[in-house]
Structures are given as C-alpha cells and as structure tokens.
Amino acid sequence: MESEARYAWIGGTLIALFVxxxxxxxxxxxxxxxxxxxxxxxxxxxxxxxxxSIGSEVRMRGINVGRVADYSILADPxxxxxxxxxxxxxxxxxxxxxxxxxxxxxxxxxxxxxINTKADGIPLTRLPPGEPYPVIAEGVPEMARxxxxxxxxxxxxxxxxxxxxxxxxxxxxxxxxxxxxxTRALTGHLAAAAPALRDTLEQSRRAAxxxxxxxxxxxxxxxxxxxxxxxxxxxxxxxxxxxxATLNTAxxxxxxxxxxxxxxxxxxxxxxxxxxxxxxxxxxxxxDSGRAMQQSAQALSKPERILFGPPPGAFGPGENHR
Length: 322
What we know:
about 60% helix, elongated
C-alpha cells in the first residue's frame, strides 16, 4: 500500500509539472502573439526566394524582429513575388529601407533582412496608390554582390590570362629573346666604355669646378659693376637735377622775353600808326602845294593877264553868263 501511494504521488507530481509547463508555454505563445505588429509589403524581382516560406524570420541587424506572414506569385513578371512581412511595431522601419533575402550556409533556410539606409529618415508609413501596407524596396543581398564581384573577377582573370598568353606567344618570345641579346651586347659595350666614361665624368667635374670659379669671379665683377652703376646713377640724378634747374631758368627767361617782345611789338604798331598818320598829312600838304604850284605855273604862262588883267569876255571867279 505504501509503494502504491508513493507511485501515485510521483505520478500526480509529474502530471502537475506537465500541466504547469503546458500552461507556461501557452502563456508565452499568447504573450508573443499579443505583441502589436506592423505589416509591410515587399516585391522581390531580382532575388531568388529559395528556402523562404511562411513563418521565415525577418531580421534587422541580426535580431529576429518579425516573420513572413504571406506571399503570392504575381502574374505580372515585372512585379515578381509579393511577400507580406509582419514586423514588431517597436522596430523603426524608416523611409529608404531595403529588404534582402539571405540564407544560412549550413541549413539553407532563408530569411528577410531589413536595412535602414538613412540614419535620420522618417518612419515608413506612406501607402502607395492601391497598396494596403507600406512598401519596402528590394535590395541586393551580400551574397549576390559577392557573386557579382567574383564573376567580374573571373572575367577579368580570364582576360588577363588571354593577354598573358598573347604576350608569351612565339613571336613575342623571339622578340624578347632578341631584346635580351641586344641588352647583353649593350651592357658589354658599356663595360668596355666604362674607363672612357670615367674620364669624361672627371673632365665634367673639372669643367664644373672651373665654371664655379668663373661664377665667383663674375659675381665679384657684377658687384663692382653694380657699385659703379650706382655711382653713375647718382651722378646722372645730379645732372638731371641741374638740367631741370637750367630748363626752369630758361623757361623763365623765355617767358620774360616773350612779354618784352609783346610790349615792343605793341610799341612798334603804335609808332607805325603815328608814322602813317604823319605821312598822310605830309602827302596832303604836298598835294596842296602841287596844286598851288600848278596854278602859279598857269598864271606865269600868260603874263599879259598879270599885267593887263583878264580879257573882256572872261569871267571872274564866281561870275556867270546872264
């Protein structure tokens, strides 16, 4: 009886523990489902959705922040696959956010990573025309970028190998061999001409030293010439000052002479005017004298008129016919 009671106690305890565990799990799942979520739509056109299913993780910075709620393959191939995401409402999904599909390398299970490209953006709440939820733009996953880089690297590597093969062709190898032979011959000629080159360098060094001495002499000569030029410049400045003073004196004398010449010219004009008036008076007197002498000559040509007077029929001064 005691053993049966002990088994019954153990069984009841286990049942109670299972009930408590089930209640806790139910409570936890209910609490999780009771968190407010925000829905977003993503149109995947360029990425492969292999491994993505309803319930797949939605991550931001490696943290699970939601799940894939639904998806639908659209008839329009330009729009690709529409995926509906449920994201914890506390997570800041900003304008300009991108959605990328990334897979775990071991399991191949895919998930959606959300990336905010703008640190100071505003929350994504705008609804495009005809859309029930905000739309997150499709991004380019890291693996796709790496694949593109590897593809470019392989293409560039292939092109580089082709160029190397072209460079190492038979014709180029013969050309390279000829170039090496010419280089070897040139090296031999240079080795043979090394003593002459050393002599030439020694002569060049001596010439440089001579040029240096000539430069020193030229510098001293130029310094002496500079001093002489400075002296000549000072003398020239004194000469110019003297010439300037002489010119000023000459200008003053010229101005005085011009004023005196003007006064003399005025005096000569006055004298000429007075002389002209005297000549006119003298000419008048001479004309009057000439007329008087002419009349006297006419009277002397007829002396009878002086002695006996005018003839009877002649009129006297002021007389007229009656």
